[in-house]
Design goal:
Layout: H1 6-20, H2 27-37, H3 39-50, H4 64-73
C-alpha cells in the first residue's frame, strides 16, 4: 500500500469531518448548539471563577481560562 499524498490525506480528513458533522451547515452552528446545551453549567463556572470560588492550585491548571477549558474536558478537575 503506497502512502497517501498530501491532497489525498486532506480529502480523507474532509470526508471524515463531513461525516462527523453531517446535518450541520457549519462548525459555528455546531458550536452554538454545544454552548446552548451547556450554557447553565458554563455560567455557574464563570460565576464561581469571578467570585474567587476556585482552586488556583488545581492539578494541570495555571490560569483561569485554562481552568475553564480543563473543567469542560474533565469535570473532576475543579471541585
Amino acid at each position: 500500500m503506497k502512502p497517501r499524498t498530501v491532497e489525498e490525506e486532506r480529502a480523507s480528513i474532509h470526508l471524515e469531518l463531513d461525516r462527523m458533522y453531517e446535518g450541520y451547515d457549519g462548525l459555528s452552528e455546531m458550536l452554538d448548539d454545544l454552548l446552548r446545551a451547556h450554557a447553565h453549567e458554563l455560567a455557574e463556572k464563570i460565576r464561581a471563577i469571578c467570585h474567587g470560588a476556585y482552586d488556583p492550585g488545581a492539578p494541570g491548571v495555571d490560569q483561569v481560562g485554562g481552568m475553564v477549558a480543563a473543567d469542560l474536558i474533565d469535570p473532576e478537575v475543579i471541585r
